[in-house]
């Protein structure tokens, strides 16, 4: 083998290779490019529609939104409400949007949606640097119309920024591979690294994977400028990660405790206590939601995408683009290492794995084109890519139609929002309305405020209660409460009157107040095994027990007794 051939994987500039097309290659390429941009436009449109229909918030989003109400920027680095973990810069940007535009679903979803829209454009650019023809079209279509990047790019979570950060890091790497004699993209990556890791924790897996995959090319065969740029990139990566980890991540993780491994995400960690099941677990994760592009499901529901992705990665490897293939695969490997160490869940749900979506979509789209080109049956090979393209377009159009017809995740979210919208207006009429938790610090059951629909309750209270929206503190003023204007306390969740905690609270209140009436509103009873999702309000009307009680300021005393 010649010296030039041996150096090909490391030194040859990366150029796109064509899959599909006839003898008129140039004309074909123009057609494929136009179609790929049409798919980009469709991807942007479906994301805009989903944002503009204004889905009701659901509890997972509300968990994070709870920390964005009134925290200072410094406080965003402290443990978050509801056991959430999110990068500080993402939280800071969200807080800036709240300060400038107000506190609402659309405001809090604006930055993730912008990241999601930008991701479609950046991905098309990345794909065009790697492949032409049907590979470019199908890869672009997979990401543009895939359900999970669209859904999670419109949530009050850092999933959209995870995807964009991963795409930018991979794009910097691909641009370097196209001109391996230039250090420009290493310096650009080094400058961008603090921001990219600041808005996405798992972006470190992508950046670390790029370093590992390109180290032989940059250090062993690069010139001195390339080596200096690569080392600067590595130092920026290490310094950014350590700074972010020590400043915020470690305190958030400490507050989470073992929740990652033994809580909701336990199935997304390898079963180390049952080593024989680890291969089964690995197959289940890689053929499940992690690879659901453009669609897929758990328990092998994404096996077809996995096969296409493997075929696409193999095509890159055989074509001599081994450094690129390694850079696309490395984030999977580093994420898996983190899972074995118990530091970050792997697989399970697509939302926590958006950092591998660029690799999955690019290799899956490429693999679809490669496998279609190998069909031997006359006339079938050219039709398969067109059928796949049609299916992707129909999927995107179908998602738009679905969002317009049913602008909600589940209908109970609509009921919850509409009830809260009317409740905080109606109950404020003729009474001093207060939230026992937010205004007086009362917690009948502290676990209520650790998970579940209580986060949605707080979000809607801040959105629809006039006083809470204006951040006006609640005070018990002398002579303000009376028979005509009672103190109306709202407890989230309904409680039985014979519960000891409720009896104790009512006894304390009974010293100075008379309970005139009480009632409950059950918005959603929730399944019996998921009581944390119960959505109910308890309303208690109190009047002062006598003139003397009504004529003195008992705010601090009542707050203490509650």
Walkthrough of the structure:
- This protein is an alpha/beta fold and 562 residues long.
- It has two domains: 3-405, no CATH class; 411-561, no CATH class.
- The protein has 24 helices and six strands.
- The strands form two sheets. Strands 3-4-6-5 form a four-stranded mixed sheet.
- The model is unreliable at 1-11 and 548-562 (pLDDT under 50).
Radius of gyration: 28 Å
Number of helices: 24
Give the mean pLDDT: 89
Structural class: alpha/beta
What overall form do the CA principal axes indicate? elongated
The spatial strand order of the largest sheet comes to: 3-4-6-5
Unreliable parts: 1-11, 548-562
Q: Strand content of the residues, in percent?
A: 5-15%
Q: Helical content, roughly?
A: 55-70%
Major sheet: size, sense and barrel closure?
A: 4 strands, mixed
Number of strands: 6
What is the N-to-C order of secondary-structure elements (H for helix, E for strand)? HEHHHHEHHHHHHHHHHHHHEHHHEHEEHH
Q: What number of structural domains do the residues give?
A: 2
First CA to last CA: what distance? 82 Å
Per-chain topology:
Layout: H1 3-11, E1 17-19, H2 25-52, H3 59-65, H4 88-101, H5 105-128, E2 131-133, H6 134-145, H7 147-152, H8 159-178, H9 184-199, H10 203-220, H11 224-256, H12 259-262, H13 278-286, H14 303-318, H15 322-340, H16 357-373, H17 383-405, H18 411-426, E3 432-435, H19 436-440, H20 454-464, H21 466-469, E4 487-492, H22 500-509, E5 513-524, E6 535-544, H23 547-550, H24 555-561
Parallel strand pairs: 1-2, 3-4
Antiparallel strand pairs: 4-6, 5-6
Helix pairs in contact: 2-5, 2-6, 2-17, 3-20, 4-5, 5-6, 5-8, 6-16, 6-17, 8-9, 8-10, 8-15, 9-11, 10-11, 10-15, 14-15, 14-16, 18-20
């Amino acid at each position: 083998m010649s010296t030039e051939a041996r150096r090909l994987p490391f030194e040859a500039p990366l150029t796109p290779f064509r899959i599909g097309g006839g003898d008129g290659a140039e004309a074909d390429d123009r057609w494929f490019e136009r179609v790929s941009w049409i798919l980009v436009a469709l991807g942007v449109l479906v994301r805009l529609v989903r944002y503009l229909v204004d889905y009701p918030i659901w509890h997972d989003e509300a968990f994070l939104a709870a920390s964005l109400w009134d925290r200072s920027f410094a406080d965003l680095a402290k443990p978050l409400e509801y056991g959430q973990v999110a990068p500080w810069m993402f939280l800071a940007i969200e807080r800036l949007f709240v300060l400038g535009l107000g506190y609402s679903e659309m405001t809090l979803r604006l930055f993730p949606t912008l990241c999601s829209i930008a991701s479609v454009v950046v991905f098309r650019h990345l794909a065009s640097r790697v492949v032409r023809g049907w590979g470019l079209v199908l890869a672009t279509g997979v990401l543009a119309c895939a359900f999970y990047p669209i859904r999670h790019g419109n949530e009050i979570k850092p999933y959209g920024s995870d995807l964009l950060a991963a795409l930018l890091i991979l794009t910097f790497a691909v641009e370097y591979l196209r001109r391996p004699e230039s250090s420009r993209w290493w310096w650009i990556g080094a400058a961008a690294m603090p921001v990219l890791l600041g808005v996405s924790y798992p972006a470190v897996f992508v950046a670390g994977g790029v370093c590992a995959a390109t180290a032989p090319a940059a250090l062993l065969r690069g010139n001195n400028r390339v080596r200096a740029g690569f080392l600067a990139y590595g130092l920026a990566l290490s310094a950014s990660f350590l700074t972010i980890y020590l400043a915020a991540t470690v305190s958030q993780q400490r507050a989470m405790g073992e929740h990652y491994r033994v809580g909701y995400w336990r199935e997304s960690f390898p079963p180390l206590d049952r080593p024989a099941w680890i291969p089964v677990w690995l197959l289940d994760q890689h053929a499940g939601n992690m690879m659901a592009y453009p669609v897929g499901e758990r328990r092998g529901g994404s096996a077809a995408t996995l096969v296409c992705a493997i075929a696409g990665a193999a095509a890159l490897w055989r074509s001599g683009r081994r450094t690129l293939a390694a850079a696309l695969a490395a984030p999977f490997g580093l994420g898996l290492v983190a899972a074995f160490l118990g530091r970050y869940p792997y697989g399970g749900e697509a939302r926590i794995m958006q950092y591998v979506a660029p690799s999955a979509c690019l290799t899956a789209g490429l693999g679809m084109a490669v496998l279609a080109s190998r069909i031997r049956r006359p006339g079938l090979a050219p039709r398969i890519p067109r059928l796949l393209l049609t299916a992707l377009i129909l999927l995107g159009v179908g998602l738009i139609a679905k969002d317009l017809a049913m602008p909600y995740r589940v209908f109970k979210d609509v009921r919850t929002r509409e009830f809260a919208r009317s409740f905080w207006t109606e109950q404020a009429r003729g009474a001093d309305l207060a939230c026992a938790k937010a205004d007086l610090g009362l917690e009948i059951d502290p676990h209520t405020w650790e998970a579940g629909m209580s986060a949605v309750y707080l979000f809607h209270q801040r959105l629809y209660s006039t006083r809470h929206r204006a951040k006006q503190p609640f005070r018990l003023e002398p002579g303000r409460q009376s028979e005509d204007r009672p103190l109306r306390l709202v407890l989230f969740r309904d409680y039985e009157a014979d519960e000891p905690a409720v009896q104790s609270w009512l006894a304390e209140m009974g010293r100075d107040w008379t309970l005139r009436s009480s009632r409950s509103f059950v918005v959603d009873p929730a399944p019996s095994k998921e009581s944390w999702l119960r959505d109910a309000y308890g309303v208690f009307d109190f009047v002062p027990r006598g003139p003397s009680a009504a004529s003195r300021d008992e705010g601090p005393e009542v707050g203490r007794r509650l």
